[in-house]
Amino acid sequence: MHTHILPERLPNFAEKFGYGDFIYLMKNQDGSANMMQGDKFFRRIQPNCWDPKLRIKDYQKFNTQVQVVCTIPVMFSYWANAKDTKVLAEYLNDDIAQLCKDYPQNYLGLGTLPMQDADEAIAELQRCKEIGLLGVQIGSNINDKNLSEPEFFPIFEAAQELGMAIMVHPWNMMGMADMRKYWLPWLVGMPAETSRAACSMIFGGVLEKLPQLRVCFSHAGGSFLPTLGRIEHGYNCRPDLVAIHNNVNPRQYVGEFWVDSITHDPKLLEYILSMQGSKRVMLGSDYPFPLGDLEIGAFIEDMNLEKNVIEDIFAHAALEWLDIDKSRFDINEGDKSDIKVSEKG
After folding, report:
1. How many C-beta atoms surround the C-beta of residue 232 within 10 A?
2. pTM tops 0.90
């Protein structure tokens, strides 16, 4: 499903705006680049983070034709002045839209929004649709506020009206300052963040009030589906605390939203498929980062799944989430299913 991408060149937004630790790139002699957050090193990235032809070749190794691309979550910059975040979002979104126009058979795009201000976010959401993006990627929380907060509802409402898909990606992980050792924010915090987002959108009534909103929760829904028994039990035993804004059992929403296939565990994916159904599980890669499924669905091909289930995962689920028809693509004969669409990035 989603694959992360950055422009090869990023303006120095901190200099432009006069404040803040906006990400900028420092190129290295070996062709890689360091993502810098102010004066702190954030991550080293390789040319496959921005080179469209290199990415296409990497995906071809695994018979995957189409990538759904979006920015790296650290670029969200919800902490900044909303008008400045909108300028940054416009730059990133224009770059992805141009990529999709240049390589229409290989790339589908998701934008980013200044979620900290609903008016600015809706304006950019509308512009994203105008420039050909099919949806947006948002964070699992907005400056530590849950997605159930009323200030975000107009954005979701606009997304439903515009037919724009929403992908929720974990970021700004809860407790990060207390668990930096052992890479725990990425191993423990990310799955919890995604469950936080799913629970917030369910218990806050977002999914109930907006039944046509097409939402995907990254990384197989994080810890939401594996711990749904506990979540449902909490709903049943303490409705006075849980069911205060929506009295529908959370289990009723399973199969109403989408997740990707990144479980790194065939047994867990079987469980996810048994809950969601194959039409709500999309191929995920999280390319080009090491926590992703960088063999892009190879383990799924070894699971002895029915052909129609594999085709749902590899293509149909993502195409339905994005509300597009596979007829827009010239099908490669070598693809194991008619078209293999990978999200994340």
Report:
1. 16
2. yes
Listed range (107-116, 123-132, 219-228, 328-337) with the worst mean pLDDT: 328-337
2-19+47-342: CATH homologous superfamily? Metal-dependent hydrolases (3.20.20.140)
C-alpha distance across the termini of the chain, in Å: 8
Computed on alpha carbons and rounded to an integer, the radius of gyration of the chain in Å comes to: 19
Query: In Å, what is the CA distance from 178 to each residue of 188, 235, 250, 291?
Result: 12, 29, 30, 21
Q: Are strands 341-342 and 40-45 parallel, antiparallel or unpaired?
A: unpaired
pLDDT for res 336: 46
Residue 308 has, within 13 A of its CA and on its CB side, a CA count of 2
Query: Per-residue DSSP letters for 135-195?
Result: EEEEESSBTTB-TTSGGGHHHHHHHHHHT-EEEEE--S-TTGGG--GGGHIIIIIHHHHHH
- The whole-angstrom separation of Cα 198 and Cα 284 is 18
Asked if 220 contacts 194 with a C-beta cutoff of 8 angstroms, the reply is no
Q: Using CA atoms, how far apart are residues 111 and 193, in angstroms rounded to an integer?
A: 21
Q: Above 80 in pLDDT, residue 337?
A: no
Which of 234, 236, 244, 246 shows the shortest CA–CA distance to 202? 246
Work out whether strand 281-282 and strand 258-260 pair parallel, antiparallel, or are unpaired: parallel
Domain boundaries in the chain? 2-19+47-342
